[in-house]
């Protein structure tokens, strides 16, 4: 067990679960608790037993399924109801029966809340606090008291707020936690209030800060400066409304800035992994710009930054990313300089150091392409193909002579649709920009059947319909001209299938490549449909992912550019020697 002189108290499973959009199962809660325990927090607040069946079940299963190495499990609940005895309050009984060694009791400490929300007297509220603490202590549980709305209450009626702290401490609470429940405090005020409460009560104090002014982490650290020895936080800052103090930011600051050991050996290096794993379980995409653990936390874009980082990464980083299990990354864009390209190439395993002319050419090409709408910062694979081209080692497995896509949408099985239409009028065909050139003779032909189009049964704007696309590609692969046709549920899917069909006998590993993400962004244009389109395609081969970028006025053409690169890069990853 950790040193008890300073507590890192995690409330992801209680306050974190109060975030809009979060709905954890018991299994999710157990999995998160295991991660937090491994990470090394001192206390894990598991929920409110008795408030809902799920939290009651969590504490029941935790007895056998949650052997904790570092943390102590904590049950949350409120002080007894007004006008009852703690021993008769079913909610207090649920806390006792939870089996948790520690209980956090939420208590009113703002006189207005006592009178208007609880609708009881100030004296009865003090008795509710003291009775409940004493009762649970007698039953062998360790007690922390969360003084709800403490800071607002202290401003309104400091003597009453202080009397709640004293009532809790005198009844046997180990820690009295001052809560900024509405999250409206600023750091300097927190420091001043905490210092005054310490001086006037002598109680061991903690802090629980909501993030409504964006100051939860700063307020938590301000309270530490004033002497609290217990900090309540949540993983990734999840919590009611805009959230709580982010556990990872607080722990990062305590360990790396305050030089205070609050985690067991090795815990800090797990921080990025734990943050991402919790986000995965909670089913919220990890916040990319989160301090310490975000994927962008050590991503450098500006050329000037890169040029100094080349000399020493510390010149542009507040700490070593490896200490928190994160990585430094270079982003290449139109803000890049030669140093950015050199460092990025190194990251990709290509040594360009010293070749100023080549680096300069790459910078110029990147800037020119970005002006046209390309974006390389999210498309490392495209950048690597470009670098290899500039090095005089272009990667090619095929050459596209042409491609053509037909997109068709059919009204779903109307009885009259199958009958010949009499008296229809033929109107002129309109020129399209995505049609390939005519076929030659004497070639291999490959075909792929895609049995179904996407059956769009949405009733939106009309009757159900089926959409289907058919693509034909004409390629040169290893000296042979190949024509392949395939169907797909959309034009890009059909092109992807046709491309694979054309090469499947030649590059068998193609089967392991999978399109996992397709992003479209409309760049500036005069109207919605004639604007320039940027496509980002992400592929996976089961071992890793890579992203490529394509730009064009025609969305299918832009997609093709990205697709050609993605497949090329995928084949390079499979180890095929480059040749046409
Ligand atoms: C600041 C925080 O985030 S604290 C954590 C808050 N978390 C939650 O509320 C989530 C879980 N809550 C619940 O499931 C339900 O609200 C329950 C089970 C706790 C209570 O449900 P209900 O009995 O239906 O009461 P309801 O939610 O309407 O109101 C809360 C009651 O608790 C009382 N109460 C509130 N705080 C306290 C307190 N510190 N001590 C004693 N009683 C309290 C209120 O006065 C109100 O009493 P009333 O029923 O006599 O009006
Ligand atoms: C206890 C708690 O969650 C709060 O006061 O915000």
UniProtKB/TrEMBL annotation:
- One Pfam family, please name it: HMGL-like
* Enzyme Commission number(s) from the entry: 2.3.3.21
Q: Does the keyword Transcription regulation apply?
A: no
The segment annotated Disordered runs over 436-455
Q: Which reaction does it catalyse?
A: pyruvate + acetyl-CoA + H2O = (3R)-citramalate + CoA + H(+)
Q: Which domain of life is it from?
A: Bacteria
Name one process (GO BP) from the record. Answer: L-leucine biosynthetic process
One function term, GO molecular function aspect: (R)-citramalate synthase activity
The record ties this protein, via SUPFAM superfamilies, to:
2-isopropylmalate synthase LeuA, allosteric (dimerisation) domain (SSF110921), Aldolase (SSF51569)
Xref: SMART domains: LeuA_dimer
- Please state the pathway this protein functions in, per its UniProt record: Amino-acid biosynthesis; L-isoleucine biosynthesis; 2-oxobutanoate from pyruvate: step 1/3
- What InterPro entries does UniProt report for this protein, alphabetically? 2-isopropylmalate_synth_dimer (IPR013709), AIPM/Hcit_synth_CS (IPR002034), Aldolase_TIM (IPR013785), Citramal_synthase (IPR005675), LeuA/HCS_post-cat (IPR054691), LeuA_allosteric_dom_sf (IPR036230), PYR_CT (IPR000891)
Q: What's the top EC group for this one? A: transferase
Q: Which UniProt keywords apply?
A: Amino-acid biosynthesis, Branched-chain amino acid biosynthesis, Isoleucine biosynthesis, Transferase
In this protein, which residues make up the domain named Pyruvate carboxyltransferase? 6-269
Family to which the UniProt record says this protein belongs: Belongs to the alpha-IPM synthase/homocitrate synthase family.
**What name appears for this protein in its UniProt entry?**
Citramalate synthase
């Amino acid at each position: 067990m950790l040193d008890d002189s300073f507590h890192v108290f995690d409330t992801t499973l209680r306050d974190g679960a109060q975030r809009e959009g979060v709905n954890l199962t018991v299994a999710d809660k157990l999995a998160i608790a295991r991660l937090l325990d491994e990470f090394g927090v001192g206390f894990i607040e598991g929920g409110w037993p008795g408030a809902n069946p799920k939290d009651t079940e969590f504490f029941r299963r935790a007895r056998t399924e949650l052997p904790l190495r570092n943390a102590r499990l904590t049950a949350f609940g409120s002080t007894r109801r007004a006008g009852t005895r703690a021993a008769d309050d079913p909610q207090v009984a649920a806390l006792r029966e939870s089996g948790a060694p520690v209980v956090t009791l939420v208590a009113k400490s703002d006189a207005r809340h006592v009178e208007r929300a609880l609708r009881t007297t100030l004296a009865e509220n003090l008795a509710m606090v003291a009775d409940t603490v004493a009762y649970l202590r007698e039953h062998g549980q360790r007690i922390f008291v969360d003084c709800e709305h403490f800071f607002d209450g202290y401003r309104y009626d400091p003597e009453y707020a202080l009397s709640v702290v004293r009532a809790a401490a005198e009844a046997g609470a180990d820690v009295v936690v001052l809560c900024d429940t509405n999250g409206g405090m600023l750091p300097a005020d927190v420091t001043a209030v905490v210092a005054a409460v310490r001086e006037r009560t002598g109680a061991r104090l903690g802090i629980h800060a909501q993030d409504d002014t964006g100051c939860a982490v700063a307020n938590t650290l301000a309270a530490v400066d004033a002497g609290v020895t217990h900090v309540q936080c949540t993983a990734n800052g999840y919590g009611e409304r805009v959230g709580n103090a982010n556990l990872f930011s607080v722990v990062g600051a305590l360990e790396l800035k305050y030089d205070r050991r609050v985690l067991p050996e090795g815990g800090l290096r797990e921080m990025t992994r734990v943050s991402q794993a919790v986000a995965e379980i909670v089913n919220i995409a990890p916040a990319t710009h989160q301090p310490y653990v975000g994927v962008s936390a050590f991503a450098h874009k500006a050329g000037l930054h890169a040029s100094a980082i080349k000399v020493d990464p510390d010149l542009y980083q507040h700490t070593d990313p490896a200490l928190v299990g994160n990585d430094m990354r270079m982003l290449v864009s139109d803000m890049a300089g030669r140093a950015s390209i050199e460092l990025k190439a190194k990251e990709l395993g290509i040594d360009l150091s010293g070749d100023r002319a080549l680096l300069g050419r790459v910078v110029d090409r990147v800037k020119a392409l970005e002006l046209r709408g390309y974006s390389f910062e999210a498309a490392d694979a495209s950048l690597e193909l470009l670098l290899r081209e500039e090095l005089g080692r272009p990667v090619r497995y095929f050459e596209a002579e042409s491609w053509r896509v037909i997109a068709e949408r059919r009204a779903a099985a109307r009885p009259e649709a199958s009958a010949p239409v009499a008296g229809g009028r033929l109107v002129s065909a309109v020129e399209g920009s995505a049609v390939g050139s005519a076929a030659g003779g004497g070639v291999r032909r490959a075909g792929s059947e895609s049995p179904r189009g996407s059956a769009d049964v949405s009733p939106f704007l009309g009757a159900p319909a089926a959409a289907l696309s058919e693509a034909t590609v004409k390629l040169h692969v290893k000296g042979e001209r190949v024509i392949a046709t395939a169907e797909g549920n959309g034009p890009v899917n059909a092109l992807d299938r046709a491309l694979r069909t054309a090469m499947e006998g030649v590059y068998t590993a193609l089967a392991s490549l999978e399109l996992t993400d397709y992003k479209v962004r409309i760049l500036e244009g005069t109207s919605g449909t004639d604007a320039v389109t940027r496509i980002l395609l992400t592929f996976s081969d089961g071992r890793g992912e890579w992203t490529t970028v394509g730009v064009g006025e025609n969305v299918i053409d832009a997609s093709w550019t990205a697709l050609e690169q993605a497949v090329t890069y995928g084949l390079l990853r499979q180890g095929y020697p480059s040749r046409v």
